[in-house]
Amino acid sequence: MSDRAGLSRFIVLSTLLALATPAFAGPEEDREAFQNYYQSRFPDVALEEYINGIYAFNEDARKQWLEIEEFPPYEFAVEDGESLFATPFSNGQGYADCFENGGLGIRQNYPQFDPEPGEVITLELAINRCRERNAEAPYPYDSEEILSLSAYMAFTSRGNLFNIVVPDDPRAVAAYERGKQFYYSKRGQLNMACSDCHVTSVGAYVRADHLGPSLGQPTHFPVYRSKLGRLISLHSRFFGCVRDVRARPFEQQSAEFRNLEYFLTVMSNGLKANGPGARK
Amino acid sequence: MKSRCMHITIVLLLAVALTACSGNEPPGQTTADTAPAPETDSESFAALLAAAQSAQKAAAEAGAEWLETGKLIDQAKRNAEQERWDTAIKLAMKAKQQGELAVAQADRESDAWQRRVVQ
Lengths: 280, 119
What we know:
Chain A is mainly alpha-helical and 280 residues long. Chain A is 45% helix and 7% strand. Chain B is mainly alpha-helical and 119 residues long.
């Protein structure tokens, strides 16, 4: 009797411990759980549609968006980006010399962990590092030039599937985990986490708009914002969100935002690149 | 007679003892003369500003600084420059509170975030 009681106690305690201890899943397990969550919650929305954000959920908004896409407002930026991309640096080299495949059709490979500096590199950071390696001044991260270049390179990558790998390097895993922690951590005077809006409250009407899911968010950046009349980067959107919950935002291309982009893009693995996008 | 003398002696000794216990100041000085001088507004503000800046720094180091804290500190300093002490002190106090709340938030979130991870 005492053996059975002891065994029962052990089973109960083990179960309680398992429930209380957070599961430290890897990136692939996280991605699967993340995508399954949205698919279970919104069974009528096809997985591949998540790259269109809230336009996959709201029929009226989708109709307006499709009309805008007939003459997309980012078209001029893509043309400018193509021109900039083709212009050689003072030393005769060009962007094509810095990237695999000549820099075309590679958007889906970013962000990536670079073992040499031991950090996450985004496409925009890679563009500027290319410039610096060729003795050109880096562009500010909210400049028309870098956004146009990013838009052009994204445009050439449309339809390619994201498959960001977190290599078996403790620094890469740490960067991924820091991005994950950032995403789920409450911050600011409003005490809100990214997940509060983009997981828990997807579809809710907040600040005169419907909240979109995080799944598929990185795939369509940079984005032309109609309300601003220009392109913005994903990190500019991060900056705005952190400011909106009344926390002091980090700078674009800070380690915090690069790690956050890393986490979010892994969560969108398997989805197609479809940048640049157009949004309200 | 002997007992009356003893009573008077005891009363006198008690009187002396009570007088001795009434104050620590040397003869010629009162309690008011030895109490610390009240802080001036400027001193109060300086102490509060230092505390606010320390709290802001702690919040920033935790990656958790709130949006307004720096602005509150700047506003506090501007009011102090114009000797608007009440306002300066209130603003510095608010900045200090924000810094402390941000640090508490970061401490809480260092674990709490894991409970929100989609499983």
